[in-house]
Amino acid sequence: MRTVNEQTARTPWRSVAHDRSMYSEDGFTLIELIIVVAVVPMIIGAISLALISVLSLQGGVSNGISDSADAQVVSANFQKDVESAEMITTQPSSTPQCGTGTQLLGLEWNQQGTVYENIVSYVKVDNGSTSSLVRQYCTNGSTTPTSTSTVSSDIPQSQTQSAPVVITPANINASAGAEWTSTVGITGVTFATTAPASGYSYTLTAVPEATSTGTSQLAALSTTCGFATPGTGTYASTLCFVDLSPYDDAPVPCPGSPGYQAMTAGIDGTPFTLSFCIEVSSVTSKGSQITGPVAAPVPYGTINGTTTTGGFNGVSAVSLPTYTDPPESEAFLGNNGFYTGVPGNPALYTEVEGSTTTIQVIDIKVLDAVGNPATGWGLVTGDAESTDTGESITWTSDEPLSLIPNSPTSAIGNACAAPVSPDGLTGVGTTTVECAATVHSDKTGTVMLQAPAPTTLTVTMVGAGLQAVFLGLLLPGAA
Fold this sequence. Notes:
Shape: elongated
Low-confidence stretches: 1-18, 212-219
Radius of gyration: 41 Å
Strand content: 25-35%
Oligomer: single chain
Helix content: 10-25%
Mean pLDDT: 83
Number of helices: 6
Number of strands: 28
Distance between the termini: 145 Å
């Protein structure tokens, strides 16, 4: 049986309209809407600002990571190359140079004859508004790279060879800025730069192994420095004479010094080595240049050993004594029991009568067994023939030249007679000494000079006939 609520039945529409419990009152008030409209833009703005900041930092972070990675690549190559180096330069353009570009650092090692087997040049290459650091590697004396790699893609365009690479000590830094220089004695090679894209700065420092081992200089001996027969001279046991036999028309060149020949002499029975670069020029009495090889057998003097070439540019390396012609004139050195028995060919002898010869010796060094500079030594030089009428020899050094007496009772015998000895000997105790003569005589002595640890020596020989000089070393502690 169906029943109906009487109230509803009587007034159905009125009841429904007034029964508010049947409808929801959910929604936003005016105040809520005002708050939402005001706050939401602020929140969205903050989020947008943060997002923009993150996106703008992404490039800087990426550049920073890239430049940091470049620094690691540069470090790995730089450390290895510097430790291997025997020669170094910071010339922007050097000879030789591996490849092309503005060179910031050049390195060489493993000398093979007249060239170095390995050459590395770090060069700056401009790429529009940016610059890269490129490592170029050459082998076997070639200047064409066998490999090229970009070790950093972000270095300043304004970076020059003097800014990023600094060599210590300062004297080697200055030398390397002008020419190829030995790495012996270097205590640090420092590369510093700031990457422009990120502002990331880094500094790298390495030390050549040649500094601590000395192998680069000690391994390349080209000759010896030998002693006279014991008892034949006051310094027979402490004065060695350099065998100049390697002087010829096929020299080992001196890096950075075109025309000079490199010589490194091991000193017999000692841990020391003497090294230097030598260059000779000669002119005839009429001023014509004397150039080219001197064929063996040489016109004057005797060469110990077998050789296919007798000398170069008008002089030859010959044995002692150079000249024997008593009673009119003869060389005193090597004769008459005076420093006899010297091995090799220690005299540079002119081969053209009446010629004028200039011998320049530079970069003179004496090193111990581990490549450290020796102290207390003296470079010795002197007349290895006879200076007679109209002839002279002049020695100039960067250190004062003192006389080594022939004996306790005779300083130079009758050498430098103008007209009597020692009238023709001048400048002893200064950096320039001359021996000149106005008479012809059989010699009873000779001039022998020594300079304490010089770096340069120039000898000028003026001959009416022939002239000769020698080079030697007074051992450390004996000078």
